[in-house]
Amino acid sequence: MNYENTKTGVNTDEQTKFYSQKAIAITTFFGGLLAAGILMRRNYLNLNQETYAKHALFYGIAFTILILIGIIILPENVIDKIPNSIFPAIYSLIIYYVVEKTQGKALKAHKENGGEFYSAWKAVKVGVLSMVAFLIAIAFIAFLMGDFSKQEPDKNTQLIIQSLDLFFKNEQKSVKVFQSAKTKDTSYVKNELKKSIALWKTNKELIKNLQELDGLLENTKVFLQTLMDYSNLRIEHFTLIYKRLNENTDKYKNRIEAVGLKIEKKVKELNKLAETK
């Protein structure tokens, strides 16, 4: 069943996913205006509005560059007086209003027709990757200006962002084994499962190192512990699948399914935490 975007006349299949207004605003707070542009672009593409999609990405990049310039040229004593959360809070509220005005009707109609939305967890990944790009840009520009030490991001923040970026990349690499299982022989799949287990062990070390940082907020501690639990479940799941293939038996089938359900539940917890962070 289709519904019509009353503002543009674009017919949109209800099964097409979108990023919700709330998810975009939250991701903007943590990932900046570049993240907002990327998420709004995806919504516009799913609405078959390619011109608006280009505009969204362009403005996301343009305003990110303006913020970069402001950070670089403002005196350090001025920047130090501004609370870290002020500007993210302001432009997150602005983005929330912009999404309401530009995509609100389509998102509301999509929801009323039973359409699905991308998870907040997926949106947060976009935000983290955007923030990584933002920090790299700050470091590069500051280096070119000969004042790298002045603009170096807070070490804890930098480590958290870099670690989560690697965590998400490892996650994406690990699940590719399920695609190869359809076309490759058992020996190949078992080897890929070993690699996936190793990736998740690396993820555990990443989270463990973050948990040892001083001054973490309580909600950050909860988020990191949930990621640790998620990593343990992934290791258990891949290990059971490996045993099932290696021993050529179905005795692990029920356990594999049970752990799979626990993983789904943990992902939902991560989505909920992402929405409240």
What is the CA–CA distance across the termini?
35 Å
Percent range of helical residues: over 70%
Tell me the number of strands: 2
SSE class: mainly alpha
**How many individual helices?**
10
Spatial order of the strands in the main sheet? 1-2
Question: From N to C, what is the helix and strand string?
Answer: EEHHHHHHHHHH
Q: What low-confidence regions span 5 or more consecutive residues with pLDDT below 50? A: 1-14, 146-152
* Structural Rg: 21 Å
Overall number of structural domains: 2
Architecture overview:
The protein has a two-stranded antiparallel sheet with strand order 1-2. The chain has helices at 21-46, 50-73, 76-81, 86-112, 120-144, 155-174, 177-180, 186-211, 218-247, 253-276, and strands at residues 2-4, 11-13. It is mainly alpha-helical and 277 residues long. It folds into two domains: 2-144, no CATH class; 166-276. Mean pLDDT is 81; it is low at 1-14 and 146-152.
What is the element layout, followed by pairings?
Elements: E1 2-4, E2 11-13, H1 21-46, H2 50-73, H3 76-81, H4 86-112, H5 120-144, H6 155-174, H7 177-180, H8 186-211, H9 218-247, H10 253-276
Antiparallel strand pairs: 1-2
Helix pairs in contact: 1-2, 1-4, 1-5, 2-5, 5-6, 5-10, 6-8, 8-9, 9-10
Summarize the structure.
This protein is mainly α and 277 residues long. It has helices spanning 21-46, 50-73, 76-81, 86-112, 120-144, 155-174, 177-180, 186-211, 218-247, 253-276; strands at 2-4, 11-13. It folds into two domains: 2-144, no CATH class; 166-276.
